Amino acid sequence: MAEIRFDDIEGLKAQVSEDFSGWGPEIEVSQEMINGFAELTGDHQWIHVDVERARRESPFGGPIAHGFLTLSLLPMLRTRSDFSIVGYGNAVNYGADKLRFVAPVPAGAKIRARSRLRGVDQRPKGTMVTNELQVGIVGQDVPAIVYEMLVLYNPPRKVKT
After folding, report:
1. Could you give the CA distance from residue 145 to residue 137 in angstroms, rounded to a whole number?
2. DSSP type of residue 17
3. Which segments within 6-144 are labelled E, that is strand?
4. Residue 160 lies in a domain
5. Nearest to residue 92, comparing CAs of 50, 125, 136?
6. In a domain, 131, yes or no
7. How high is the pLDDT of residue 1?
8. Distant-in-sequence contacts of 30-37, Cβ < 8 A, 24+ apart
9. Can you give the residue range of the structural domain that contains 102?
10. Residue 81 pLDDT
11. H helices of 66-107, where?
């Protein structure tokens, strides 16, 4: 795997692509995970946590994961890449240029993710990288999530002695 320094703007820009990486590992989104997320966030909407009602009344035929639960699983989904960014002090989640919850994730579904580098910009405090990620439901063509994630790679801090 190639290593590219966070401040090698041209080296990083050479990795910008229209092609997605391969899919990363699969994980199952269980009803227990959904219930735990509901407890943590206070979002107990029946479409997520009331299994019987969701089977009867939901247009999805059963309970679905919260969109933000699915999004929060991205670190576990670790997308594959042909390169790694090195030499930075820290990387900060800077936000999103785009976030869409395209398809519901049914309880018990397996999900996976893939990504592509969309942009690289030098900023006064570091290097801003834009990655487009897709979270896919195994067995479905339509992604569950399309997310353009912004990450700011900051240089190492100088230690005062």
Report:
1. 9
2. -
3. 27-28, 83-86, 90-101, 110-123, 126-137
4. no
5. 125
6. yes
7. 83
8. 30/107, 30/108, 31/63, 31/107, 31/108, 33/65, 33/69, 34/63, 34/65, 34/66, 34/69, 34/107, 37/65, 37/66, 37/68, 37/69, 37/72
9. 2-154
10. 82
11. 67-72, 74-77
CATH of the domain at 135: 3.10.129.10
Residue 161 lies inside a defined structural domain of this protein: no
- The size of the chain, in residues, is 161
Cα distances from 101 to residues 26, 41, 48, 70, in angstroms, run 19, 18, 15, 9
CA 123, CA 92: separation in Å to the nearest integer? 13
Number of structural domains, the chain?
1
Cβ(66)–Cβ(73) below 8 Å: no
Give the H or E element holding residue 12.
helix 9-13
Q: Tell me the two tokens of residue 147.
A: 């997310």
Residue 93 banded pLDDT, cuts 50, 70, 90: very high
Confidence of residue 34 (pLDDT cuts 50, 70, 90): very high
